[in-house]
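User: Can you help me understand a structure? I only have the sequence.
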Amino acid sequence: MLQINDLSYEIGERKLLNNVSFAVHPGQKIGLIGPNGAGKTTLLRILAGELKPLSGSILMPRGYKIGYLPQEQVAFGVGSLLGAVLEGHAEIQQIEMQIHEIQSQLTGNDAHNARLLKKLGELQDRFSLLGGYELESEAKKILMGLGFKESDFFRPLKEFSGGWRMRAYLAKILLIKPDLLLLDEPTNHLDLPSLEWIEGFLKTFTGSMIIISHDRYFLDRLAQIIAELQHGQLTLYHGNYHFYEQEKAKRQEQLIKQWEEQQAEIQRIQRFIDRFRYKATKAAQVQSRIKKLEKLERIELPEEEKFIRFKIRAAVQSYKDVLQIENLFFRYVETQPWIFQGVDFRLYRGQKIALVGPNGVGKTTFTRLITGELKPTQGKIQAGQRVKISYYAQHQVDALNLDSTVMEAVQQSAAPEFSGKERDILGTFGLSGDAVEKPIKVLSGGEKARVSLAKILLSPANFLIMDEPTNHLDLKSREALEFALNDYDGTLLLISHDRYFLDKLVQKVVEIKDGKLYEYEGNYSDYLRLKEVRVFIDQKEKSSAEQKPESKKSAGRKSKEQKRLEAEARQKISRQRKKLAAEIEQLENQIEQAEAQKADLEKQLADPATYQNSARAVELQKTYKQLQENLTAWEARWEEAQLALEALLAELEKNLS
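Assistant: Let's start by predicting it. Here is the structure, written out as tokens:
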């Protein structure tokens, strides 16, 4: 167990950690959240031994191993990828070298040297005890899971990009199997397939973990405890991220109620003091109440979290056809394989589509072809009439004018209707107060990316193309962006590895695979379900095709195998259909009950007599507001479930016709 006692840390006059205490028990998985700049990375660096706290202590057992993946790049390894990952196992590597050395000596006259054979046996036993025989195999398995290919293992590490080197460093840490794993935004460097793999790996990890992440889907699936760091204090919620959201709202409501009750009690006591202060007969009672007020431990309400919801609108509506791609072929150079071959694709006004696929498959290339930054090798890409594109991508940060201030940079691209709202939107992305007057050149990479994002959102475009817009955003900023894009009346093409974000926003998922585009109706969760069905059918069809050809007599009729495959596919979709149908029925019941309750509340709130009891009226209004929010969420999920059900049935019909 790791025990943290009264940990404090300051930068200048700002307290990042103020007497923070908590324990990390064996096997616990803790999600560490909080606004950008709250001190999350500082806390991890202190636990990793990279920073010293101003005060407090960290207690851990002797030999306790800590593995730390920082957010920024780490310089490690000078040889091959595999060699760099194995670096953390010096004793195993040293023993392996000694074994090879002795084996080379056991030749000729020394082939049966008793001393060498005994030494070799001892080394082999030690090598086996340390897991040396499984180590390389385990390292390769982890690397493959993180998206590396077998052909990458012996490539020099320096040949890989920064993101891939961070993956390699993560593999090195996972291979060490530390007692405590500290991960600072591990999902930033991963594509969706690798993200799903690491999620599965970490679920089975037996050690303890503290993970800083703004990926709500990731936190929901992994975290057993959410630790929120805010204003120097750490608050624990014993559940996943969904539980944290509900529990925090409940605690806040209880605290407000306790504060209101205490304020009423204070006012009652103060009225007594004011009324009888100068009456000799009441002097003792007055003094008693004054002392009571002095000793009273006042309940303090936390600072109200600022959550600015902003709306973005297309200045001019495009025509129905936003984008038309016909017979697209593309590769960077003639000697390379095709990235796209024979692609046809259409995009219509108002569609919100996710573009998915492993890193390197061509997602960013596809967006750059649409914007005209790249030209097709063959084929046609045609934007529709009155289409105005705004493109957000990480490389566009380099286009910012370094001498402009943050405010100047944003104002230069803002549409007239956003005039005066620039500060609000910048504040949503963690750039407020004096920060908006800073020159771009002094900002961090993450801050520059947020300025670039604000510029895009303030533009008058009716077709937004966004490549990883949630990178560098904390949870509140992601929620604000999610709200704005959900309400956006233009067309959206989105690349993101934030699955929660995709689930909330998109109506279709387009997967890039083997130079082709594959379309799936619904959000990201629907895509995973439909893809599972498609993979299942493809495997069965392949298996069927490998069987011996049918005789001429049976030609034109379905074989028993074909019938069996179709039946299995129908059963698989039927199970998913039943699950969705049950969810739809449950939602319909919830909506029906909520609408009845809403009608009753509206009747009470319309009655003037209700407001004779102000506390009761406030309570009814709160209940009504919460009910409206629940109804909106349930109706949205009902629509998603209906679409998913329709898509499943369409997929079945398409593949079995």
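Now, to help you interpret it: The chain has a mean pLDDT of 85. Residues 44 and 182 are 7 Å apart (CA to CA). Let me know which part you'd like to focus on.
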